[in-house]
């Protein structure tokens, strides 16, 4: 690879042996420098080498999941997250969190807001370990038919938390336009001619799927593609849109971005913020609560479509 040559995201993906969508996430997060020529994105060879050096031996996937805090010793992580007013770590993958972070940055330009694009269970574990300040969850508990609270109680024992609603979202199947294979129920995933693409373990979508399979007494071994995983709703939808899979599970908002996809609604989910109760009185978190109630933020979320904000900012539970 020449440092004097620029590469497309697809070429960068081949060089780093990661997906094209991981490349875009790295660019979005500022971990991989890129520039635009019109609508085209290009990455210099020197910037690819710089990214590889900064990764310090991590695999590309580990580098995507890790934040700069992950290379600190546990006692340093806790100090960095909770004693310093210079940085706050926000975990979750939904675009609404990017909007929320931008609003916080306007109010606290001196604070470094770090975004970690990880799933629900990993986010709760990061909060438990002192590696995050605000995390999101959409974990359905089939025993209680409740979202998030049972998982928070199990995964953060002895740590009082506050669960605050961000939005409600519709979870369902992504299928090709016209749904020619008539995929409408969980049992349809076992059809011999249906290729499924799954989310990674620990994500809310994966928990929903596995719980529904258990309740319906469906063996995951009967699902073609169950072990094939992608890290985001966008990657799942794109794979179905390209014809590389027949069906995947994700949120309605993402499906709206593809003209050749249909969306089969299955389950309305509650997407919540989880923070420590002890942090609730801190200025940054008081500002977060104010933003959730502000017309400007709520109108911005409404404007992008696909979300129910009827309970946004409401405290769902304290554990």
UniProtKB/TrEMBL annotation:
Residues 7-54 form the Helix-turn-helix domain. InterPro entries: HTH_17, PBP_domain, SinI_DNA-bd. One of its GO terms (molecular function) is DNA binding. Pfam families: HTH_17 (PF12728), PBP_like (PF12727). Residues 102-293 form the PBP domain. NCBIfam families: excise. This is Helix-turn-helix domain-containing protein.
């Amino acid at each position: 690879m020449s440092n004097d040559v620029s590469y497309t995201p697809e070429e960068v993906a081949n060089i780093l042996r990661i997906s094209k969508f991981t490349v875009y996430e790295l660019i979005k997060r500022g971990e991989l420098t890129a520039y635009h020529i019109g609508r085209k994105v290009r990455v210099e060879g020197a910037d690819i080498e710089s990214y590889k050096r900064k990764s310090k031996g991590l695999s590309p996937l580990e580098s995507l999941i890790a934040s700069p805090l992950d290379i600190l010793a546990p006692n340093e992580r806790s100090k960095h997250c909770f004693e310093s007013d210079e940085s706050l770590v926000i975990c979750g993958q939904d675009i609404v969190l990017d909007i929320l972070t931008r609003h916080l940055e306007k109010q606290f330009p001196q604070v470094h807001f770090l975004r970690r694009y990880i799933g629900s269970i990993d986010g709760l574990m990061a909060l438990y370990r002192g590696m995050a300040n605000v995390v999101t969850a959409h974990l359905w508990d089939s025993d209680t038919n409740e979202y998030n609270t049972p998982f928070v109680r199990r995964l953060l024992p002895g740590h009082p938390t506050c669960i605050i609603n961000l939005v409600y979202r519709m979870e369902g199947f992504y299928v090709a336009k016209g749904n020619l294979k008539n995929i409408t129920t969980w049992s349809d995933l076992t059809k011999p001619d249906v290729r499924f693409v799954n989310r990674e373990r620990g994500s809310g979508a994966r928990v929903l799927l596995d719980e529904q399979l258990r309740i319906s007494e469906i063996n995951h071994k009967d699902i073609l593609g169950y072990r094939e995983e992608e890290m985001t709703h966008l990657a799942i939808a794109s794979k179905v849109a390209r014809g590389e899979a027949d069906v995947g599970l994700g949120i309605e908002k993402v499906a709206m971005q593809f003209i050749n996809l249909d969306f089969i609604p299955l389950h309305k989910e509650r997407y919540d913020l989880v923070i420590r109760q002890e942090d609730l009185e801190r200025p940054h978190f008081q500002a977060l609560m104010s933003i959730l109630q502000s017309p400007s933020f709520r109108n911005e979320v409404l404007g992008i479509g696909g979300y129910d904000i009827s309970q946004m900012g409401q405290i769902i539970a304290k554990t």
